[in-house]
């Protein structure tokens, strides 16, 4: 089968031997404790290198070669015979590979595919057969070597999507993938931390480990998605004549299928539609609640499947279209500690640069000190790195099997790396004990408050701010409004600059509430949420009076953050009072008397991409978002199914492509400017 990803090139027999041993060791480690020594892409490249060498030198093929064996020949076999062999799938990596597969399928069935192509996600977990007899879930069997699998029935009752009873007394074997969703993965690691067990390095390894474990003092919940069904005990239960129909029958039993997700099964008539759907799924990938490593394409019609038949390892009627890996291995070179605007002290990994999901990654988040402690990470470790789409790259775990003994412990800071003061270690996140306003967060929070998207005080750079802080004149943003011309002139060394700043400060007092609120730098809020909060409550007094439950009603505000936000607003009381005393505006202007419903963007979810010109020239993204919301719409940064308008400026790229794929309405800058003309200043 054609592949786009390069195979490892093996030039002599010694290299071949070494490669076989590496592959066997990697599979063995994976099946032993769920910890791989190689990431997927490296394993694939190695396996394809081995296969290429074996084709060139058939005499050299080793009996223990992983080629041609399900699970690389080392999967736990178990002793439950499979009703029908559980095979794996052949891979392609690009449109060309897909076309070649389609051509070979057409040759096998003597005509182009007529019954359509079923397209569904390739779920990244562990294969499982669930046997229902007379409506009861009686046995779970792992894939094993394809003909025999291990009995995993002890997991019955802990798998979401696999009910223990189904209606109608059905007798049938349902096949699918068991996995840990991202939420389940996080929860699993919390449970494991609490039991002093090693945390799972990623959801797939966690699934493998969880399914095998029998006598744990705790239960870890997993999730099942069906992707097939076969007859059991010769009972004629399945009536559908194709994949989609049978999956509908499975779903009707209450067993979860992929149709419960955004990337669920769809059937297409042409390969071009299949290719477009693959790209669509690739875009949706980062937002899915579980991991996928590809897209599976199957001839939907069972007659066509039967005619196409099976090879030794793969069905000819199905193919896995692999997506670029979102995981990679690289070296942890160092750990940096940075202090954020709110005084949060965060560890950051400095990595040997590595390519993941289309970009080079050099830094990744290490979350918090608890993560470092629980994962046992050391400097010099080979680490598993995860990055998909726009999400911040994160280190998942060290690959302990690749340690050389040269690794060194990560030193946790004794004092705040920003100001040298104490660290508040009471929570999972460490904070500078001085907090945002007192400690080393003071300057960053002042800089943030005067920024273009907040109070927008032009000409008040960090050097002047530092001088004002050092002179003891400014502790928080409110103090700025009480500075005299003389004080400003001293700090900036110029009367003219002081005059200009006074004009800016007077202007800043008139900013709308959303910007004044944003300038406070409340934890877990940024520009978007500040606009939502200001719009929801209308006045600063109403915001201050809001209980956490009332805050949680604000659009886009995660309920779990509401208590923290409320507490911080309360703590900022004196600063807010001072701002009010200075005459700073504390209300969100309503747009005339117009009801939201009659504004031009009422009910529209708008995303802006590319550079703005013409009537919209010079507006940054935040200003565009403010404009959208004044005109009654909601603004968002990324295109999804919910987006109703994409404004495409100069150089619009992937967002435009995605909008076109989703059939979203696309407007040029001029069309958009005309639509909201009444709201342009
Ligand atoms: S069909 C005979 N469909 O990928 C065809 N497999 O490398 C059997 N997988 O062992 C598989 N999502 O564990 C199929 N939608 C999907 C799948 C899927 C994930 C796994 C499965 C299989 C492996 C093949």
Automatic annotation (TrEMBL):
Q: Which EC numbers does the record give?
A: 6.5.1.2
- State the similarity comment: Belongs to the NAD-dependent DNA ligase family. LigA subfamily.
Organism equals Streptomyces lannensis
* Active site, per annotation: 122 (n6-amp-lysine intermediate)
Where does the source fall among the domains of life? Bacteria
Job of this protein:
DNA ligase that catalyzes the formation of phosphodiester linkages between 5'-phosphoryl and 3'-hydroxyl groups in double-stranded DNA using NAD as a coenzyme and as the energy source for the reaction. It is essential for DNA replication and repair of damaged DNA.
Q: Which cofactor does it need?
A: Mg(2+); Mn(2+)
Give TM regions. none
**Residues bound to Zn(2+):** 416, 419
NCBIfam families attached to this UniProt entry: dnlj (TIGR00575), PRK07956.1 (NF005932)
User: Is this entry keyworded Zinc?
Assistant: yes
Report the GO molecular function annotations. Answer: ligase activity
In terms of InterPro entries, this protein maps to: BRCT_dom, BRCT_dom_sf, DisA/LigA_HHH, DNA_ligase, DNAligase_adenylation, DNAligase_N, NA-bd_OB-fold, NAD_DNA_ligase_OB
- Which protein, by its recorded name, is this? DNA ligase
Instruction: State a single Pfam family of this protein.
Output: BRCT
- Where, by residue number, does NAD(+) bind? 40-44, 88-89, 120, 143, 177, 298, 322
Q: Which UniProt keywords apply?
A: DNA damage, DNA repair, DNA replication, Ligase, Magnesium, Manganese, Metal-binding, NAD, Zinc
Database matches in CDD domains: BRCT_DNA_ligase_like, LIGANc
Give the BRCT domain ranges.
Answer: 596-681
Reactions catalysed according to its record: NAD(+) + (deoxyribonucleotide)n-3'-hydroxyl + 5'-phospho-(deoxyribonucleotide)m = (deoxyribonucleotide)n+m + AMP + beta-nicotinamide D-nucleotide
């Amino acid at each position: 089968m054609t592949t786009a990803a390069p195979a490892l090139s093996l030039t002599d027999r010694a290299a071949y031997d070494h490669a076989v041993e590496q592959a066997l060791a990697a599979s063995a480690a994976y099946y032993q404790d769920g910890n791989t020594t190689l990431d997927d892409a490296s394993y694939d490249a190695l396996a394809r290198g081995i296969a290429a060498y074996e084709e060139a030198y058939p005499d050299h093929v080793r009996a223990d070669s992983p080629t041609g064996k399900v699970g690389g020949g080392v999967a736990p076999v178990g002793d439950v015979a499979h009703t029908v062999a559980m095979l794996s799938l052949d891979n392609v990596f690009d449109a060309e590979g897909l076309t070649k597969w389609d051509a070979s399928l057409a040759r096998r069935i003597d005509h182009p595919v007529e019954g359509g192509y079923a397209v569904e996600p390739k779920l990244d977990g562990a294969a499982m057969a669930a046997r229902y007899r007379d409506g009861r879930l009686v046995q779970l069997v792992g894939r094993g070597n394809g003909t025999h699998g291990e009995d995993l029935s002890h997991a019955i009752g802990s798998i979401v999507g696999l009910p223990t009873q189904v209606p109608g007394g059905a007798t049938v074997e349902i096949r699918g993938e068991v996995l840990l969703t991202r939420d389940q993965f996080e929860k699993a690691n919390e449970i494991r931390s609490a039991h002093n067990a090693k945390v799972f390095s990623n959801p797939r390894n966690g699934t493998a480990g969880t399914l095998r474990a029998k006598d744990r003092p705790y239960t870890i919940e997993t999730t099942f998605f069906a992707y097939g069904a076969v007859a059991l005990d010769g009972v004629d239960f399945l009536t559908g004549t194709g994949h989609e129909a049978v999956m509908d029958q499975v779903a009707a039993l209450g067993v979860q299928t992929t149709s419960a997700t955004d990337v669920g099964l769809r059937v297409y008539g042409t390969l071009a539609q299949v290719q477009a759907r693959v790209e669509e799924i690739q875009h949706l990938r980062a937002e899915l609640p579980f991991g996928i490593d590809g897209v599976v394409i199957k001839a939907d019609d069972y007659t066509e499947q039967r005619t196409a038949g099976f090879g030794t390892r793969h069905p000819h009627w199905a193919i896995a279209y692999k997506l670029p890996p979102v995981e990679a291995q690289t070296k942890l070179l160092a750990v940096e500690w940075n202090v954020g605007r709110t005084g949060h002290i965060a560890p950051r990994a400095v990595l040997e640069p590595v390519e993941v999901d289309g970009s080079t990654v050099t830094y990744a988040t290490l979350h918090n000190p608890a993560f470092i402690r629980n994962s046992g990470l050391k400097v010099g470790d080979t680490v598993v790195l995860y990055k998909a789409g726009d999400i911040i790259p994160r280190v998942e775990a060290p690959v302990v099997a690749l340690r050389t003994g040269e690794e060194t412990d990560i030193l946790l800071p004794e004092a705040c790396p920003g100001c040298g003061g104490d660290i508040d270690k009471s929570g999972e996140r460490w904070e500078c004990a001085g907090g945002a306003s007192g400690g080393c967060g003071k300057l960053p929070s002042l800089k943030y408050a005067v920024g273009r998207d907040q109070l927008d005080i032009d000409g008040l750079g960090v050097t002047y701010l530092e001088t004002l802080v050092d002179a003891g004149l400014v502790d928080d943003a409110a103090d700025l409004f009480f500075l005299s011309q003389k004080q400003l002139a001293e700090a900036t060394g110029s009367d003219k600059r002081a005059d200009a700043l006074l004009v800016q400060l007077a202007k800043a007092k008139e900013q709308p509430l959303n910007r004044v609120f944003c300038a406070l730098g409340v934890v877990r809020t940024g520009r978007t949420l500040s606009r939502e909060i200001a719009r929801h409550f209308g006045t600063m007094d109403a915001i201050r009076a809001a209980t956490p439950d009332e805050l949680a009603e604000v659009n886009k505000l995660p309920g779990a953050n509401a208590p923290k936000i409320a507490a911080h607003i309360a703590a900022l009381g004196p600063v807010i009072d001072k701002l009010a005393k200075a005459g700073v505006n504390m209300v969100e202007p309503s747009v005339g008397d117009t009801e939201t419903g009659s504004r031009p963007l009422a009910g529209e979810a708008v995303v802006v991409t590319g550079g703005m010109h013409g009537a919209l020239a010079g507006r940054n993204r935040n200003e565009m978002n403010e404009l959208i919301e004044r005109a009654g719409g909601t603004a968002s940064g990324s295109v999804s199914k919910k987006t109703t308008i994409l404004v495409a400026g100069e150089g619009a790229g992937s967002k435009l492509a995605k909008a076109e794929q989703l059939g979203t309405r696309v407007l040029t800058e001029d069309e958009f400017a005309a639509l909201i003309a009444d709201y342009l200043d």
